[in-house]
Description:
This protein is α/β, with parallel strands linked by helices. The chain has helices at 2-26, 56-71, 89-97, 108-111, 131-138, 141-152, 192-200, 213-219, 229-234, 260-263, 268-302, 312-321, 329-332, 339-346; strands at residues 43-48, 76-81, 102-106, 155-171, 185-188, 204-207, 224-228, 243-259, 306-308. It has one domain (43-346): 3-Layer(aba) Sandwich (D-Maltodextrin-Binding Protein, domain 2), CATH 3.40.190. Strands 1, 2, 3, 4, 5, 6, 7, 8 and 9 form a nine-stranded mixed β-sheet that branches. Helix 7 (192-200) links the parallel strand 5 and strand 6 (204-207). Helix 2 runs antiparallel to helix 11. The chain is globular, with a radius of gyration of 27 Å.
Amino acid sequence: xxxxxxxxxxxxxxxxxxxxxxxxxxxxxxxxxxxxxxxxxxxxxxxxxxxxxxxxxxxxxxxxxxxxxxxxxxxxxxxxxxxxxxxxxxxxxxxxxxxxxxxxxxxxxxxxxxxxxxxxxxxxxxxxxxxxxxxxxxxxxxxxxxxxxxxxxxxxxxxxxxxxxxxxxxxxxxxxxxxxxxxxxxxxxxxxxxxxxxxxxxxxxxxxxxxxxxxxxxxxxxxxxxxxxxxxxxxxxxxxxxxxxxxxxxxxxxxxxxxxxxxxxxxxxxxxxxxxxxxxxxxxxxxxxxxxxxxxxxxxxxxxxxxxxxxxxxxxxxxxxxxxxxxxxxxxxxxxxxxxxxxxxxxx
Length: 348
């Protein structure tokens, strides 16, 4: 029995070595080189937003998609989902918090709800007099500190140099003076600072997903909304509202965000590719935003929209009306004392 066991063990070992040798030989390249390495698994990233194809955000998003594929050698792929295809902004942020591989665009008024309350001021009314002031703030230590607070609460900012544009109001009846705002039902994003600002302007703000606004204005549920020219035109609101008033109440930068948990699963190289490509695409977006505004205004006028440019005196009334916002404890909870003054000092 001992001899049989010895022979069986020998035969088993011989077969194992033979199979291993065959496997090793088959994995070598045709030129006799070493075994080929398995191809890297492709990373697929969903980039979703509320804007429509043709708008600067979408066009620059296509450039971001191209750059990521190019810089990664095809190992990273961006899938674009415009027009709220994956849900509203709030829906998308909820998915991000849950760790989904999604990137979406938002602004400080949304980010303030996720551990960085002072960020709300970046999209508050009449904070910046110029875009240079805006970019200076985003280069400051303050911005880095606020971004770190977001990371502690599960949100990572991928790229932040995207201009969303200057916001104005579009309405179904004309707003020629500050007094014309009284009682007007205006859609705003579902953020406290926006709703409070338009309440102080005399309007009756109502929170609503932007995708619902066309029908709401058509049916008379709301009388207007505020947003950038590219968004107002891109979503065809000129078909249901014929007045745009140049309140110029916000110069808004926007940030593309993702899940911090998901971000940490990427390699350092993958993170760099996403950030650098995002910043490059952001510069394209900004050119499109700046150069396209006059063209969009002309197109709106061709459809019968009246663009009302307020006098300096009237616009000053709008700016003065929102001053109490920066002392309202329901808005400034979590802010340092005189945050507005602090921000304005940083951006001088």
